[in-house]
């Protein structure tokens, strides 16, 4: 059940059914502009219902002609609160609308989700032809339109892990993407562009949003759960005896029967000093818990993140199930050659994060020069440099054009000389965390 006021919900919140729509049940959505006035009773926001509009479209805001309820959202929301089922538009229109005393414009993101006309809430108040920066839904830019032709190539690029599981070499990172609307929009355009691998983690706090979005979007593109690859990670705070329950919690948040790849996010236990030898014991306990869930079919493959060669060797000496993936920071300024060779020797797939050096490497003169040579963008050069060496990448973006641009790298190849020149940029520079001091 959804929480009532006595369960910790904010005053004035409506209780609702447990089934019928995928909603955030513990963190109630409240627009910032609502806090500037008296509290009012609002209906839960419809996050993932195709065709649903923002409930802020009200007669009080829009006037008696009801321009804000062109698809009957208020009608259907009232029906949903009483029955737990979202009726079709035709059925919803027959019900009596619910009127909520809320002012404010609908967000452009929800306009985009509604699949409406693309007009913003201010458009009827402007001169003909005048546009506003927030008007309408996302549009497919040039990069997106061009990338549509390469979706098949991108989906065909997979790596066979050491246990036989096929893993896409290209995926979407989701670090710091937490807002439900943004997650939905980002995954929608990514699936359209051919992304089939999605990387999340407990510490990202977006597992539930990603699970909800995928459950809604997969049917839209004719996909099944087996057609996508989901990676999640064990948080440093959950090392040790808490690992098994933390793994199960990730599965519950994603709301899937299994996760394709589950990683230990960090070799150290949160709260312990880096040099504390207890870190080794916690890592061992965590891996044992993951092996148990792997045997039970909850994980298709296991791996680690931010491990050094010494951490990997320690794990290989004691594990029953061999790690299939190592995810680390890897880019032209941090070419970890010894680590890559160690992984290749032990049949461990290396996957890179921060492939663009947190945006710094796209400004490198050498990368820009190569981008002009191949008629590509600097980001595409950097990503191709990695994948051409068999290294997986998971670039993160919420921009539709960049999401499309990033994956459009399978129609060209860098020469051996160009790869060598890019390698020469190596300076041992880390833009993220350094695990070398972890005992």
Mind explaining what this structure looks like?
The chain is an alpha/beta fold. The chain is built from 16 helices and 10 strands. The longest helix is centred in the middle third of the chain and has 18 residues, at 278-295. Mean pLDDT is 76; it is low at 1-139. The strands form 2 sheets. An 8-stranded parallel beta sheet has the order 3-4-5-6-7-8-9-10. It has helices at residues 59-62, 73-83, 89-92, 108-114, 142-147, 151-156, 180-193, 207-220, 243-254, 278-295, 309-318, 337-345, 365-374, 378-387, 400-407, 416-423, and strands at 158-160, 166-168, 172-173, 197-199, 229-234, 259-264, 299-305, 325-329, 349-353, 392-393. Helix 4 (108-114) packs across helix 7 (180-193) and helix 8 runs parallel beside helix 9. It folds into 2 domains: 1-137, no CATH class; 142-423, NADP-dependent oxidoreductase domain (TIM Barrel, Alpha-Beta Barrel), CATH 3.20.20.100. Keywords: NADP, Oxidoreductase. This is PGFS reductase. GO terms for molecular function: oxidoreductase activity, acting on the CH-OH group of donors, NAD or NADP as acceptor.
Q: Count the DSSP helices.
A: 16
Q: What's the number of extended β-strand segments?
A: 10
Helix and strand run: HHHHHHEEEHEHEHEHEHEHEHHEHH
How many independent structural domains?
Answer: 2
**Which strand order do you get reading across the main beta sheet?**
3-4-5-6-7-8-9-10
Pfam families: Aldo_ket_red
InterPro entries: AKR, Aldo/ket_reductase_CS, NAD(P)_OxRdtase_dom_sf, NADP_OxRdtase_dom
Biased composition (Basic and acidic residues): 121-135
GO molecular function: oxidoreductase activity, acting on the CH-OH group of donors, NAD or NADP as acceptor
């Amino acid at each position: 059940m959804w929480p009532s006021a006595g369960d910790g919900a904010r005053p004035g919140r409506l209780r609702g059914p447990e089934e019928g729509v995928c909603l955030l049940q513990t963190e109630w959505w409240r627009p910032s502009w609502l806090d500037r006035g008296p509290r009012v009773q609002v209906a839960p926001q419809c996050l993932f219902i195709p065709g649903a509009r923002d409930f802020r479209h009200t007669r009080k805001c829009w006037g008696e002609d009801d321009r804000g309820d062109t698809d009957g959202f208020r009608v259907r929301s009232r029906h949903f609160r009483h029955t737990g089922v979202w009726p079709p538009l035709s059925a919803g229109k027959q019900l009596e609308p619910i009127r909520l005393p809320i002012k404010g414009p609908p967000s452009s993101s929800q306009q985009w989700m509604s699949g409406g006309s693309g007009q913003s809430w201010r458009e009827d108040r402007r001169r003909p032809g005048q546009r506003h920066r927030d008007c309408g839904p996302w549009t497919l830019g040039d990069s997106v339109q061009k990338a549509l032709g390469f979706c098949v190539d991108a989906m065909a690029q997979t790596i066979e892990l050491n246990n036989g599981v096929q893993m896409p070499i290209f995926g979407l990172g989701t670090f710091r993407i937490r807002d439900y609307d943004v997650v939905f929009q980002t995954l929608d355009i990514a699936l359209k562009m051919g992304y089939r691998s999605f990387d999340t983690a407990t510490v990202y706090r977006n597992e539930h949003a990603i699970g909800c979005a995928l459950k809604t979007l997969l049917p839209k593109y004719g996909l099944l759960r087996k057609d996508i690859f989901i990676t999640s990670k064990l948080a440093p705070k959950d090392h040790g005896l808490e690992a098994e329950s933390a793994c199960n919690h990730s599965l519950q948040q994603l709301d899937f029967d299994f996760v394709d790849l589950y990683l230990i996010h960090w070799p150290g236990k949160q709260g312990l000093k880096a040099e504390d030898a207890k870190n080794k014991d916690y890592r061992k306990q965590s891996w044992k818990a993951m092996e148990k869930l792997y045997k039970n079919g909850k994980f298709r493959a296991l791996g680690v993140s931010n491990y050094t060669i010494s951490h990997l060797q320690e794990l290989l000496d004691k594990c029953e199930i061999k790690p299939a993936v190592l995810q680390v920071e890897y880019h032209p300024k941090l070419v970890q050659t010894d680590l890559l060779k160690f992984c290749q020797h032990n049949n461990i797939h290396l996957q890179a994060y921060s492939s663009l050096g947190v945006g710094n490497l796209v400004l490198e003169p050498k990368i820009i020069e190569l981008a002009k040579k191949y008629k590509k963008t600097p980001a595409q050069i950097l990503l191709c440099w990695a994948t051409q060496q068999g290294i997986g990448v998971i670039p993160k973006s919420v921009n539709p054009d960049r999401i499309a641009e990033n994956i459009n790298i399978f129609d060209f190849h860098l020469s051996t000389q160009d790869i060598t020149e890019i390698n020469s940029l190596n300076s041992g520079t880390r833009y993220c965390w350094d695990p070398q001091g972890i005992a």
